[in-house]
Design brief:
12-stranded antiparallel beta barrel; alpha+beta; 3 helices; Porin; 243 residues
């Protein structure tokens, strides 16, 4: 299963790279005249929200660099039923390889609450797919050849210039069972979100919405053994902003 997941994940990365490569050739002449020396720092918080049942979530990043090369520090934290379920910190090198497409290389550190913390090597592709879907795919390789794959996609539907509805999906896959972390091989979990925000400015927008999570396979079995829910639906309220 480990080799199968790794092979499938690499197929995803190579396929997107193949699509992006012709675009990068077309942008070569533009790169020859475009300056990449202007350094900018951007802080973006995509989700800072409260959920039902004392749940919380925080997802955001800091980017420093020019329009082609950036250092990206990213965090993804989630609290369910009063306990921290996920706490991830990323340090990534972000390289623009084509218009609207970035290649990412780096490391991810998991702060495990009840077991040893884990480190992963990361390779990912992030960009704007046809029909304006924002997609993010990341392959993780850990100690002992452990592998994982995360796929994310979202779409922004503009009702007006200020009211924006954002459906999103995130899916996690693992190449092996890990009882200590509560993750099983294959499809582990899916998160679905639907958030409606109001942009007072382009940089500041409160939102409300609904969030759904479901565990699958061995991950669901591990959760049942611990007396945990395998699916959760929550109303959410939060803030989106960038600086």
């Amino acid at each position: 299963m480990n080799k199968l997941l790794f092979s499938g994940a690499m197929s995803v990365v190579l396929a997107v790279t193949a699509v992006a490569a012709p675009l990068s050739e077309g942008s070569a002449s533009a790169d020859s005249v475009m300056s990449h020396n202007t350094l900018l720092t951007t802080v973006t918080v995509d989700e800072m929200e409260v959920r039902e049942n004392d749940d919380r979530a925080l997802k955001g990043d800091l980017r420093f660099g020019d329009d082609r090369d950036k250092l990206r520090l990213k965090t993804d934290w989630k609290k369910n039923s009063g306990e921290t379920e996920k706490a991830e910190l990323y340090a990534l090198y972000n390289r623009a390889i084509a218009p609207f497409w970035d290649l990412q290389l780096g490391v991810r550190h998991d702060f495990e609450m009840e077991s040893d913390s884990r480190n992963w090597g990361v390779i990912g592709l992030n960009g704007l797919a046809p029909y304006f879907f924002v997609v993010d795919s990341m392959l993780f390789v850990g100690k002992g050849g452990d592998t994982a794959l995360r796929l994310e996609a979202e779409y922004e539907l503009l009702f007006t210039q200020r009211w924006i509805l954002t459906p999103a999906i995130e899916a996690d896959f693992f190449g092996q069972n890990n009882y200590r972390s509560g993750t099983g091989s294959g499809l582990s979990d899916i998160e679905l979100g639907l958030r409606l925000r109001y942009e007072f400015t382009r940089q500041f927008a409160p939102y409300i919405g609904v969030h759904y999570e479901k565990k699958f396979g061995n991950t669901a079995d591990f959760a049942r053994e611990l007396g945990e829910d395998t699916q959760i639906t929550s109303l959410v309220a939060g803030l989106y902003f960038w600086l």
